[in-house]
Amino acid sequence: MTDPPLPSGDQPLLRPHVFDGIQEYDQRLPNWWLMTFYIAIAWFVLYWTLYYQGGFFTSDSDRVTAQLQAIHQAKTKELEKLLSTLDNDVLWAWSEDPNIRREGQAIYSRICAACHAPDLSAKLAGAPLPGLPLNDEDWKYGSQPLDIFHMVSKGSPDKTAPVQMPPWESVLSPAEIAKVSAFVLSHHVHRPPPPAQP
C-alpha cells in the first residue's frame, strides 16, 4: 500500500539506505511539534533548577511532615486547654451527661472494645481478652477519673507487663479521650475520696 501522492513540489524525501526493504522519510518535523519539544526541555531545566537548587517548591514529604506537625501542635494546644479546666469532678459530671456518654461509647466501640469487650468485662463469649476488665472495682493503675484519662492517653505505665495498653494520644484528641474516660466512669458509682486526715 502506497501513500497518496503529495502535491507538486512537496514530494517526500527518503533516506538513501534501505533496511529490510523499508525506506525512511527524511523530512523536517513540523514547527508546532519542534516548538512543543523545545518548550518541554526548557520547562524541565527551569523546574529542576527551581525545585532542587532554588527550593521554591516543597516536596510531598515536606508538605505531609508540615501538616503532621501542625496537627500535633493543635492537639498539644487542645490538651493544654482541656487540662487547664479538667479535673476529677468534671469527668464525673461528664459521665452523667447522656450525650457525652453516647459519644464516648462510640469511641469505645471503635477503639477499645476489641481488648476490653463491648460490656467492659474483658471477656467475649467467656474467653478472656487481652485488656483488663473496666466494669469491676479492681483498678490496677488508679481509679480516679484523671488516672483513667492519663491511662488512655499515655498507655500502660507498666512497660514490663506481657500485654500493654498502647497510648492513644496520637489517634484520639484530648476531648475524645475525656469522653471515652467518661463512658468508662459511667459504669461506676461516684464515691468521693475520704477527706484527708489532719
Describe, in plain words, how this protein is organized in 3D:
This protein has 198 residues and is mainly alpha-helical. The chain has a domain at 71-185: Cytochrome c-like domain (Cytochrome Bc1 Complex, Chain D, domain 2). Helix content is 50%, strand content 2%. It is built from 6 helices and 2 strands, in the order H-H-H-H-E-E-H-H. A hairpin with a 2-residue loop joins strand 1 (123-124) and strand 2 (127-128). The radius of gyration is 35 Å and the shape is elongated.
Write a brief structural summary.
It is built from 6 helices and 2 strands; from the N terminus they run H-H-H-H-E-E-H-H. The protein is mainly alpha-helical and 198 residues long. The protein has a domain at 71-185: Cytochrome Bc1 Complex, Chain D, domain 2 (Orthogonal Bundle), CATH 1.10.760.
Attribute tags:
2 strands, Cytochrome Bc1 Complex, Chain D, domain 2, mainly alpha, 198 residues, single chain, two-stranded antiparallel sheet
List the helices and strands and how they pair.
Blueprint: H1 31-54, H2 60-85, H3 88-95, H4 98-116, E1 123-124, E2 127-128, H5 145-154, H6 174-185
Antiparallel strand pairs: 1-2
Helix pairs in contact: 3-6, 4-6, 5-6
- Structural class, please? mainly alpha
Q: What is the architecture of the domain at 71-185 at the second tier of CATH?
A: Orthogonal Bundle
Question: What would you report as the Rg, rounded to the nearest angstrom?
Answer: 35 Å
Unreliable stretches covering 5 or more consecutive residues: none
Largest sheet: 2 strands, antiparallel
